[in-house]
# Entry
Amino acid sequence: MEDETGSLPPKSDFSAWYNDVLWRAEIMDVRYPVKGLYVWFPFGFGLRRHTYAILRTLLDRSGHEETLFPLLIPKNEFMKEAEHIKGFEEEVYWVTHGGLTELDVPLALRPTSETAMYPMFALWVRSHADLPIKVYQIVNTFRYETKHTRPLIRLREITSFKEAHTAHATWEEAAAQVETALSLYTQFYDELCVPVIISRRPDWDRFPGADYTMAVDALMPDGRTLQVGTAHHLGTHFSKTFEITYEDAAGEQQFVFQTCYGISERCIAAAIGVHGDDRGLVLPPKVAPVQVVVIPIIMKKQADEVRAAAEAIRAELEAAGLRVKVDDRDLRPGAKYYHWEMRGVPLRIEVGPRDLAAGTVVAATRDGEKLTLERPGLAAAIPGVLTAFAGKLRERAEASLTSRIVPVGSVEAAVEATKTGIAVVHWCGDEACAEAIEKETTASILGTGVRSAHIEKSEGPCIVCGRPGTSTVIARTY
Ligand code: ZN
# Structure
């Protein structure tokens, strides 16, 4: 990878910037010869690993258990739930042959795993004591996308689908689980320093086979929102189809109530899009594959001492649990700065002969703030520097989101507001009014029941028909 050919387009040209930064920063290689399938570079995979470690920890600590189901789903199971099939039939890849032999039952590559998991849930659940079930898996799923594909955002192989599936004795317990999922997702995105908006999707945008769908959206720099998580209350749609029942205290068979909720590698696209700048990635410290890069400034004198000091710093910081790299390549310091800035490393430490004499090091955060740190106690000071840096990322991202959320009172004003961000309108809930809004704005109704620290909910006349309406968010979407 040669990172000094040409230059990164400015982030104001977001689409070009995004495509370019993915290979310059070694996140994804788009040259794999199948449309919509991409390759994680090792550096990008490191980012994925640390990001999903946060998600795993959040799920494990809240009573979920990790599992792994097969990739292939038999056609007869896949076709059982009518609404679900309708939602996915145009996107499914089918395996029809084993070698030269046509299979008796064609096998679907999972587009999502309800129909793989729930026949097994029917075997697992016998009595009330078997509930609740809370499992998740992080797997690849396949969808034959016909729209324009884009790395990490619109894929034919989603490589990193975290899907959780739960089963409960009552509708209310399942509804509470949806709330738990949303709370976990809010914590997850807070660790990525990405502010999100939660809303209830309109009925026509529900997950196929759900009672209702809650969604989590992030706002990208081009003013379009990216759906970065969903949580669905499935009611008894699937338990009736797959006969998942338990015996209640009175000895009666009851259908379980289910939920499912997912996050894909879009979470990484959001972190890249929200924080990056004209010089490349800017990574939140918790997920950066390299948190600190140490650059020895080699002059003629004391070259060996400087190298030794850089190594000693690396060893100390690693012992303190930080992810550190020493860049002792034979390159100008400027070329090294450029290299690690592109890759979003949160903190750079420079050590040269003058620093040895002074007993200090010069440190620079990825956003250009310079600090002089005492050499003794360096390992103890760095975590605080990284936390402060994450705080700045979070604040900047929130300010950027807030400035692009506009409450408006007319369709015309919504057209303007959705050019750069999110319009908040009053909508009555009627589908005909929604169609009118979406046609005029070419944006989508994200949802009602909005939850965001950045949006004040209110009641008011629908911007189309004037009947009573509630706060509704509208944006152009990915
Ligand atoms: Zn209306």
About this structure: Residues 428, 430, 433, 462, 464-465, 467 surround zinc ion (CB under 6 Å). DSSP finds 14 helices and 26 strands in the chain.
